[in-house]
Amino acid sequence: MSELETQIAFDVTTLRKDFPILSTMVHGKPLVYLDNAATTQKPNAVLDIQNIYYREQNANIHRGVHHLSEVATFEYEKARGKVKNFINAADNKEVIFTKGTTDSINLVAQSFGKTFLSAGDEVIISAMEHHSNIVPWQMICEERNAILRIIPMNDDGELVIEEFEKLLSPKTKIVSVVFVSNSLGTINPVKQIIELAHRNGSTVLIDGAQAVAHIPVDVRALDCDFFAFSGHKIFGPTGIGVLYGKAALLDQMKPYQGGGDMIRSVTFEKTTYNDLPYKFEAGTPNIVGGIGLGAAIDYVNIIGLNAISSYEHELLEYGTEILNHVSGLRLIGTAKLKASILSFVLENAHPHDIGTILDREGIAIRTGHHCTQPVMKRFGIPATARASISFYNTKEELDALVRGIAKVSEIFG
Asked: For residue 159, what is the domain's CATH number?
């Protein structure tokens, strides 16, 4: 993209008008929303489509023959097609709608685990995983008497790939790693990890929750076996997520939830399961969430992820530079490849106090362990303050962050 095209794409003042919540006043001051890794705000396009659905299209899907059911089914399945195109899946049946990334990972851990994991087998995850990509694997490993192995990371918050290669063995059944760390911002070399795992004969799941709103994703180019993400991280509704899986692999896996719509026939003696993707979608789904996610993807596609990534990288570099000049502040996570995360600690101030004082300035950040307690332990800290960037943020908002941190320093010395 040319510099001119980037400037046109990022008339940020105009783009911000698409997000009503960004005009909110907090404690009498303009909202500075820097908590995008927790959840992103929603554009009018997403808000409007949900309103239209409930006002004009609301019905249950797949089973009805009346007009509203047919319309709702069409819109829901159209959204599945949008997801398929967005991540370049081979077929709509490889796109399973879930409640979110956590639900998607649990689905794989339970269904893949019960199908393929045996006593003594091994699962590899990394030292920087979100709890949602740790606990499900601990649970299934305990159930199947399998062993959990951990890829270490260095002081910059980068995975040590040489150690990963040493962990791989004939016992490694699945590798499950995060694309972009939610607490460090590290962009992991997932393509290399996938290639090494496949060379070993291992299956790979990629947690893409923090990647899809910032980096173009092509699941076929990556050649991952599974890819999980959440709608609310990419300007869509909460309660909707996606699990991509290669059809040949999903066909071998048994569903881990039973109920309506995931069956072909039921008798008291035997149940036969539905075709993909419905085999893994028991019960009435989050219909409006799926449709809203489709609208969010349309919105992102209009702007373009390459343009979004370029602009956000500019903000990240600017934010890194100005925070590095703040006395007593230390950034946590200094990988060479990063996306949109500025986690830090400040001398004499607990992250919760930082967050509280910044809130009085209208600045929303996240404080705590960010569901990555092993990461905090690795860096010898209880928590961080985390500012996370989206394309609707500005350099002026990052300047406001630094001014707010200065007030924290004044109070705590």
From this structure: 3.40.640.10
| Domain around 398 | 3-39+305-412
Give the per-residue pLDDT at 162.
Answer: 98
How big is the chain, counted in residues? 413
- d(CA 19, CA 40) in angstroms, rounded, equals 10
Surface-to-core class of residue 336, CB atoms within 10 Å of its CB (0-12 exposed, 13-18 middle, 19+ buried): exposed
Give tens-digit pLDDT for 232-274: 999 999 999 999 999 999 999 999 898 888 878 888 988 888 8
Whether residues 132 and 8 share a domain: the answer is no
Any idea which residues carry the catalytic annotation? 371
Report the chain's mean pLDDT, rounded to a whole number: 95
User: Which of 301, 325, 341 marks a domain boundary?
Assistant: 301
Query: Measured between alpha carbons, how far is residue 188 from residues 82, 192, 193 in Å?
Result: 26, 9, 9
If asked whether residues 24 and 81 sit together in one domain, one would say: no
Question: How many helices (H) and strands (E) in the chain?
Answer: 15, 17
pTM of the complete model = 0.95
Distance, CA of 131 to CA of 143 (rounded, Å): 18
289-296 average pLDDT score: 98
**Domain match, 150 and 271 both:** yes
